[in-house]
């Protein structure tokens, strides 16, 4: 549905996007991940036709966005990083404007009402956009992207600046939209991608560093799992026993929460599950395990590992060339 | 294009700018009109009034055009326009025609001033109509120039002041012609001078070259506006 091939874009001397290629299949939700300044927004702006690439091709449903922009743009709903809202208009005036702008042919009243109900803004339809909260403005931004029922939806950081309850609502909404649309979701929040996306493309400094299914990527970079265990028992002895468990990479105290329990951060060797041996060791000693939870891998961890791998590859290539 | 036209048109009156433009236009123009005709007790000095109109246009029209593109760029609403299935020419024309409509409507309202003249004398109808036609073309060209300058910045004030500067310069350029010795340059300057091009209208002549001049001026400015927007996409 979306196909981009070897896209490059520079701003003066700075290369923002450096040969990015990927495909998004119909009905897929793609997570587009990268740190700030990685080139995410530039890539999305190229796909949507807001910017032109220096070279490379972006196609929407087989239509080149540069060669036939009007045809291609009809298939795209886009929520930019800053929602493009006219603050002096009411929500319904604005949505009617976008409806006309897109030359939408669906029954106007019914279509707009459906969208407002999906993103839950029907009750603020007659309010001025400038008087709405950040969360509502974001929803209006999503609503405008849905007008005309486009095949492709592109969301650039849709949950930024929202409170946790709103974040969950927007995520669920995107998940629901994914049933009928092809979606690219740009973000730098990992749990968001894990919760919503089928596949992840990670970019750094304008280049793709990973393009894999969500589970595969998480597993690939998360070979060694981290756990936090809350154990009641003499600290030194517990630590000694933990470190003696086979497959344990490290065990450290990270805090004492209650009067008699201590929290430990445990890290296992790659692809080894230490939960069972942990349980048996503690039960044999008679030390109650009163809490055990996994530590979620942060996006920073993923980047450090992925970018680290890239650097290793580059160094290996250089060394090879040197040998030749 | 029609959606953009309607939105811009409404936007003028959802913000104070539309009212300020209409109000100032009618008040200042009314004052100039009464000074040049009623108080001068003459209908033959109508040409002087239109000279004043040129000065008023060069200052007031930038108020109408200053926000057209600069505000979109500042608030990033240009993203919704440029990612919608509308051509850049459609966007530019939608905004241009919206400004032209507000200007035209105020202009028509202002033309009722001339009805007053019939109460006091027998003014030359042909002269009035030719002048009105000419000055409308001039206003249309100034709007296009203002639109072009608005597309070049995201600061409304800069857009307005630079447009005023260009308009006033185009009015004053004819004064320069008198100072230039070379007849070639004098001809060139006169060709570009907005006032010199207006003379046929004052003389009740339907000069095609003058009409073409004003329309070309607007068309070139509109074309350059589309190029500025296209170029930014490639920047």
Task: Please tag this protein with its features.
heterodimer; A: 324 residues; Alpha-Beta Plaits; 2 domains; four-stranded antiparallel β-sheet; 11 helices; 14 strands; 38% helix; globular; B: 235 residues; mainly alpha
Description of the molecule:
The complex is a heterodimer of chains A (324) and B (235). Chain A is of the alpha/beta class. Chain A folds into two domains: 2-221, Rossmann fold (3-Layer(aba) Sandwich); 226-294, MTH889-like domain (Alpha-Beta Plaits). Chain A contains eleven helices and 14 strands. Chain A has helices at 40-47, 69-74, 91-101, 108-118, 134-146, 164-177, 190-196, 214-221, 235-243, 275-285, 299-323; strands at residues 2-11, 14-24, 29-33, 55-60, 63-64, 76-79, 152-156, 182-187, 199-204, 207-213, 226-232, 248-255, 261-268, 289-294. Chain A has a six-stranded mixed β-sheet with strand order 6-7-8-3-9-10, sandwiched between helices. In chain A, a hairpin with a 2-residue loop joins strand 9 and strand 10 (207-213). Chain B is mainly alpha-helical and 235 residues long. Chain B has one domain (2-234). Chain B is 84% helix and 0% strand. In chain B, helix 6 packs antiparallel against helix 8 (125-151). Chain B is globular and about 55 Å long. Chain A binds chain B through residues 11, 45, 48-52, 69-71, 73-74, 76, 78, 80, 82, 84-89, 93, 97-98, 100-103, 144, and chain B through 2-4, 6-7, 10-11, 14-15, 75-87, 233-235.
């Amino acid at each position: 549905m979306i196909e981009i091939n070897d896209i490059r874009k520079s701003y003066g001397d700075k290369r923002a996007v450096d040969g990015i290629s990927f495909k998004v299949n119909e009905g897929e939700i793609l997570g587009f991940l990268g740190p700030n300044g990685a080139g995410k927004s530039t890539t999305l702006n190229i796909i949507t036709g807001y910017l032109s690439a220096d070279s490379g091709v972006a196609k929407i449903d087989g239509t080149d966005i540069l060669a036939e922009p009007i045809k291609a743009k009809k298939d795209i709903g886009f929520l930019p990083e800053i929602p493009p809202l006219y603050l002096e208009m009411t929500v319904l005036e604005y949505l009617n404007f976008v409806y006309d702008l897109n030359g939408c042919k669906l029954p106007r009243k019914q279509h707009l009402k459906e969208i407002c109900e999906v993103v839950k803004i029907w009750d603020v339809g007659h309010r001025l956009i400038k008087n709405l909260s950040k969360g509502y403005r974001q929803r209006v931004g999503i609503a405008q992207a849905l007008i005309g029922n486009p095949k492709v939806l592109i969301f650039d950081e849709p949950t930024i600046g929202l409170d946790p309850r709103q974040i969950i609502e927007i995520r669920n909404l995107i998940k629901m939209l994914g049933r009928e649309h092809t979606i690219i979701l740009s973000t730098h929040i990992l749990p968001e991608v894990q919760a919503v996306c089928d596949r992840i493309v990670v970019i750094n400094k304008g280049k793709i560093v990973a393009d894999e299914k969500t589970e595969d990527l998480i597993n690939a970079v998360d070979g060694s799992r981290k756990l936090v265990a809350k154990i009641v028992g003499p600290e030194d002895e517990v630590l000694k026993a933990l470190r003696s468990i086979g497959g344990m990479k490290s065990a450290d105290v990270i805090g004492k929460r209650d009067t008699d329990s201590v929290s430990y951060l445990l890290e296992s060797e790659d692809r080894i599950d230490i939960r069972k041996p942990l349980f048996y060791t503690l039960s044999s000693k008679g030390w109650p395990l009163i809490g055990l939870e996994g530590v979620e891998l942060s996006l920073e961890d993923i980047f450090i590992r992925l970018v680290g791998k890239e650097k290793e590859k580059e160094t290996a290539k250089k060394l090879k060339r040197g040998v030749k | 294009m029609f959606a953009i036209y309607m939105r811009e048109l409404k936007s003028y009156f959802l913000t104070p700018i539309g009212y300020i433009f209409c109000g100032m236009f009618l008040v200042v123009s009314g004052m100039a009109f009464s000074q040049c005709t009623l108080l001068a007790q003459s209908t033959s000095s109508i040409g002087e009034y239109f000279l004043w109109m040129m000065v008023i246009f060069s200052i007031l029209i930038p108020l109408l055009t200053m926000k057209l593109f600069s505000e979109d760029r500042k608030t990033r609403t240009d993203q919704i326009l440029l990612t919608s299935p509308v051509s850049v020419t459609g966007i530019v024309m939608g905004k241009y025609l919206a400004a032209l409509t507000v200007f035209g409507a105020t202009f028509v309202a202002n033309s009722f001033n001339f009805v007053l003249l019939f109460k006091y004398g027998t003014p030359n109808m042909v002269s009035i109509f030719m002048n009105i036609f000419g000055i409308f073309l001039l206003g249309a060209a100034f709007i296009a120039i203002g639109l072009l300058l608005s597309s070049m910045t995201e600061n409304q004030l800069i857009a307005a002041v630079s447009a005023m500067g260009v308009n006033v310069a185009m009015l004053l350029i004819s004064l320069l012609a008198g100072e230039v010795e070379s007849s070639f340059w004098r001809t060139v300057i006169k060709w570009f001078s907005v006032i010199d091009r207006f003379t046929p209208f004052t003389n009740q002549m339907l000069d095609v070259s003058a009409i073409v001049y004003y329309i070309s001026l607007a068309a070139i400015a509109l074309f350059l506006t589309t190029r500025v927007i296209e170029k930014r996409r490639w920047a």
